[in-house]
Structure formats: structure tokens, C-alpha cells
Amino acid sequence: MRGPLKSILIIAATASVAGCGQNVLGSFYSEAGSVIDGGDFGNTTMNNTQIQSGQRSYAVSLAHRFEAEVPSTINFAFNSSTLDAEAQQVLNRQANWILQFPEIQFRVFGHTDLVGSDAYNRTLGLRRAQAAVRYLVGRGVNRSRLQAVSSLGETQPLIATPNPERRNRRTVTQVSGFVQNNPMVLNGKYAEVVYREYVDSATERSTLITVPSQAKAEE
């Protein structure tokens, strides 16, 4: 039994090494990029590979990133489209994020709770969305990038209740697509966005320190 078993193990090990060697040599002599990464080098590499190969939409990827990195929702008082301090803080964060990606368009949806008629709530939801858009524009976002202002009225409540509910009185900001004819549209080249952000983050911020002159120091 020992002889045959030992021979089988040697043959199996040799075949495994040979197969591994074939994969390595095949990857080495193949055209660059011919072997798609399956995720062995981390999520970032896999994400970039999938976008480059068309397996993932760049706009969808940014939409997920927007929702993960900044709050997409603000809330309102009853029967109001006025932005309170908390809503303004959220919109400030949204504006800062949006300004990093001048090639992306956004859409703002306005919602209400279930109190009042459908027609009135659609108008109120629209006013809330317009208030959010005006604030984002005031923070430096180009108005043309806010592609459309849509109101869903009372048709999509988060909490199903006929009573006043603050969580239903909201606007939601979402990525909607690319700015048409924008020279920075990347057509799936997500790595260029990463590189652009990397360069910006590595840029040294100079600080000027005023040193009083000898004469003033003695005075």
C-alpha cells in the first residue's frame, strides 16, 4: 500500500505544480489585462476591473458611494418646505461631495406624509425638492447638474401611517447620470477618478505664518 500511495501523491503534487506553472506562464506571456481579476487583490481592484470590463456601471457605483459617504435625505416640519439647521448641515455635506464629481448629474425627490390631499402633497413635495436644489446651487453646485426636480408626493412613505410623520416629510438626493458633453465624463474609467482624488489629497496646503519684525518684537 505504501508504494502505490506514495506514487499517487507524487503524481498529484507534480500535476498541481505544473498546472500552477501553466497559469503563471500563461498570465506572464498573455496580453496585459487579458486575465480579469476575480477579486483576489481586494475590492478596489475588483471594482475598477469590473467597471473597465463593463460588468459594473460607473454611475451605479458612484450612486452607491454617494449613499454610503453622505446622508441622502433631509426632513421637514409639518406643512413646510423651510430648511432647518439640521437639513442645511446635510445639504452642505451633499454639496461638498457633489462638487468633487463635476461630470455627474443628480436628481432630488420631494416627499410628504399622508396628511392632506394627493394634489396638495405633490405640490408641497415639489416645493421641498426645489428648496433643497436652491440651497445646493447656493453652495456652488451648477444648476444644470441637478437634472430634474421630481415630486413623489405621498406615494412612497417610509412609515405607513395616516398621521403626521416627520420621517415621511423628506427630500432624497440621488445620482441620475452623466452631464451631457462634459469633457470630464469618464466612460467607466473609474481609476481616473481615484487618481484625481489622490492628487488632490496629496497637494500640499501652504500656510503663511506672520513673524513679527525685530523692532516690533522689542516694542
TrEMBL record:
- Entries under InterPro entries matching the protein: Bact_OuterMem_StrucFunc, OMP_bac, OmpA-like, OmpA-like_sf
Q: Where is the OmpA-like domain?
A: 63-179
| Mitochondrion recorded as keyword | no
Where, per UniProt, does this protein localize?
Answer: Cell outer membrane
- Keyword tags: Cell outer membrane, Membrane
Coarsely, its chief localization is membrane
Q: Record's Pfam families?
A: OmpA
- Asked if the keyword Membrane belongs to this entry, the reply reads yes
* Stored CDD domains: OmpA_C-like
What is the name of the protein in this document?
OmpA family protein
- Organism equals Pseudohalocynthiibacter aestuariivivens
